[in-house]
């Protein structure tokens, strides 16, 4: 189980970084914290293009993967006794 644990930790690190980058690539829609940092200056709510829809899909898939990895790591740690003193 040690190999699986290490693989899942590496996967968690990679998915965390990629998820952060994908979230930062999204356009600000205004009305929230993006207004505070100048994002409210954009022109209205434009319709999503193909690139924006693909970015949304990749972000959702990566977010679900990230959640599954965290749950799997938690279950492994819970039932294998990793971290017990």
Features:
protein transport; transport; single chain; mainly alpha; SecG; Protein-export membrane protein SecG; elongated; transmembrane helix; 85 residues
Please write out the topology:
Blueprint (H helix, E strand, L loop, with lengths): L1 H24 L7 H4 L13 H31 L5
Keywords: Cell membrane, Membrane, Protein transport, Translocation, Transmembrane, Transmembrane helix, Transport
Family: Belongs to the SecG family.
Function: Involved in protein export. Participates in an early event of protein translocation.
SSE succession: HHH
Regions with little confidence, pLDDT below 50 for 5+ residues = none
Largest sheet: none
Kindly, what is the distance between the CA atoms of the first and last residues, rounded to a whole number of angstroms? 18 Å
- What is the radius of gyration? 18 Å
Contiguous helical run count: 3
Count of DSSP E strands? Answer: 0
Shape: elongated
The assigned structural class equals: mainly alpha
What is the mean predicted local confidence, pLDDT? 82
Helicity range? 55-70%
Transmembrane segments: 6-25, 58-79
Subcellular location: Cell membrane; Membrane
InterPro entries: SecG
Function: Involved in protein export. Participates in an early event of protein translocation.
Summary of the model, kept short:
It is found in: Cell membrane; Membrane. By secondary structure, the protein is mainly α. The protein has helices at residues 2-25, 33-36, 50-80.
């Amino acid at each position: 189980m040690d190999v699986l644990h290490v693989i899942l930790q590496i996967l968690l690190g990679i998915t965390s970084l990629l998820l952060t980058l994908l979230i930062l690539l999204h356009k600000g829609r205004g009305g929230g914290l993006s207004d505070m940092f100048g994002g409210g200056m954009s022109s209205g709510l434009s319709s999503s293009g193909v690139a924006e829809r693909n970015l949304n899909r990749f972000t959702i898939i990566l977010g679900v993967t990230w959640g599954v990895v965290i749950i799997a790591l938690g279950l492994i740690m819970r039932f294998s006794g990793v971290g017990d003193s």
